[in-house]
């Protein structure tokens, strides 16, 4: 502070018109020094006011920094919550995929077990049809043999188109 005052005094003296020593009286020098002291006092008050305003601005900046830190911690918490939600969603999706794969495996296994009785029944029916065909062939042979012996029966078979 004092250094600023001295620099100001030196600049003021250097800027004032040079007067010869003979022309300046003691009273004028004292008036000049008093004026300089008053100006220095005003400058010190202005500097104190400026320091107070700077301190106020620094306080507001600290408040803003505190709010930013609070918001940053809130955002970190929100990000952690979202990360947990994403893990739950991925777990659900993976569970669904595993369930679908298990269901497809069960369907294929069940299809094989469900088809086996159908194949068995189909074979039984085919065997039954084969037996009936053999029986029909045998019956046809018997009927033709009887038709050779009985002419009226042969006539009936010819009308039916079996002979």
**Strand segment count:** 0
- State the helicity in percent bands: over 70%
The shape, in one word, is rod-shaped
Number of domains: 1
**Main beta sheet: strand number and arrangement?**
none
In sequence order, what are the helices and strands, one letter per element? Answer: HHH
Structural class: mainly alpha
Given as residue ranges, the uncertain stretches (5+ residues, pLDDT < 50) are: none
Mean pLDDT: 84
Tally of alpha and pi helices: 3
Task: Give the topology, please.
Layout: H1 2-15, H2 26-149, H3 151-160
Helix pairs in contact: 1-2, 2-3
Account of the 3D structure:
α1 packs across α2 and α2 (26-149) runs antiparallel to α3. The model has no long low-confidence stretch (mean pLDDT 84). This protein has one domain (2-160). It has three helices and no strands. With 163 residues, it is mainly alpha-helical. The protein has helices spanning 2-15, 26-149, 151-160.
Question: What is the structure about, briefly put?
Answer:
The protein is mainly α. It is about 90% helix and about 0% strand.
Based on the model shown, name its key terms.
single chain, 91% helix, 163 residues, 0% strand, rod-shaped
């Amino acid at each position: 502070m004092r250094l600023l005052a001295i620099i100001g005094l030196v600049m003021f003296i250097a800027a004032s018109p040079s007067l010869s020593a003979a022309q300046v009286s003691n009273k004028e020098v004292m008036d000049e020094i008093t004026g300089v002291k008053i100006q220095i006092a005003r400058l010190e008050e202005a500097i104190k006011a400026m320091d107070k305003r700077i301190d106020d601005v620094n306080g507001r900046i600290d408040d803003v920094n505190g709010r930013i830190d609070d918001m940053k911690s809130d955002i970190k918490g929100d990000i952690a919550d979202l990360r947990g939600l994403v893990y739950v969603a991925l777990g659900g999706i993976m569970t669904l995929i595993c369930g679908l794969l298990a269901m497809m495996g069960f369907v294929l296994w069940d299809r094989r077990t469900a088809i086996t009785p159908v194949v068995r029944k189909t074979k039984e029916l085919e065997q039954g049809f084969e037996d009936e065909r053999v029986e029909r062939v045998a019956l046809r042979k018997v009927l033709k043999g009887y038709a050779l012996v009985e002419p009226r029966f042969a006539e009936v078979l010819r009308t039916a188109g079996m002979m």
